[in-house]
Here is the input.
Amino acid sequence: RIQANALRQSFANRLLALIRTHVFDNGLVLVAEEMRHLESAGFTFLLPAGSIYDPPEKAGLASFTCEMALRGCGPRDSRQYIDDLDNLGIDRGESVSNTHTSYSGSSLAENLHAGLEIFVDVIREPHLPPNLMEAGRQVLIQEVLSIEDEPSQKLMQELRARHIRPPYGLPSQGTLDSIEGIDHEDIVQFWEKQYVPGGTVLGVAGRFDWDALLEHVGNLLGKWPAAKIDELPTGERGQRQLHLPYESNQTHIGIAYPSVPYSDPDYFHASAGVGALSSGSSARLFTEVREKRGLCYTVYASYYSTRHEGAVMCYAGTTAERAQETLDVTLQELMRLPDGIEPFELQRLKARVKSSLMMQQESSMSRTMAIVRDWYHLGRVRTRDELGAEIDALTLESINAYLKDHPPRDLTVVTLGPTPLTVAE
Here is the structure.
């Protein structure tokens, strides 16, 4: 009876995580996961149209193109586009990263096909209206100004730009000067060159019929003229220590060091180290830097990855008077990471990761984002069961061996505040 129940549960789990893929002749990839316990369906289009493809003098072009693509498409003007999505109850979002432009949506499963039709028009038939160029430009200008007004964001942007090999670490927003220099022809040319099927991934998750979905996407995008985007070469990292003068009573500290990329077999070991540093209010950085010494109002570490390299990014915000001590203590915590983590830290890490996986299973849109990320980095999609097994396989011995062999090194340190700080050897 126990074996029979286990078999039934295993079969049920496979039904809940049935992943299908299809590569069309033009290079478009459709990858979908059936989640039959949901009444919704979500989708994400991942297009090879990130900011790495911006000409240096036109930084922000990918973001500008994304903004303009939303201002009318197919038979719809800008107002009708919004009304049609609202009438279908589609929750949506779009973003531009270094490598991709993404368009996402989710709704009741019965509206999946209609929602896909609208977003195919966004991608294939955007109006890119010249008369709305200035309105779109103002949106980007406000985004740039908002970062200038938020020192912590400005600092982390500068940290990524110097630590991640260009062009993959450069900001996607552009600058005020570069945005002012973008004209309508630049938008059209970027769309024609980058909005192509080769390198595009459409991820779908939730309740749907695979055969019907495959036929529908084939009708919508199967005849999209084939074109492919080549990956760009990387350059050298920037200045490893930098201070940005900023008149304020606060100082912002950014520290980065190399890690393995998301596709590396040791990714979860690297992630465990980041979790020990910054996974909740009982993590090391929060406890040692903020709670015990009261040095800063916020401190954290996060993981960042391109297809080719990973990095651990740390941030601390503090007063100018306590900035040097905050930097010193934060570096000390990083440098003791190779000594290993404790059993309670591993237990906490596993609990948080599994909780995140479970929450992801309740959101079809969130799952589509994970699907397309997996496909881009790995060329396949990992199921929830596979991810759970990888987490369960982590041991203190394996994590600590990795941390010992991969200590923080080749640090990039960027500070922003009234006074430069000293980085100890």
Remarks:
- Residues 343-360 form the longest helix (18 residues).
- The CA atoms of residues 157 and 171 lie 6 Å apart.
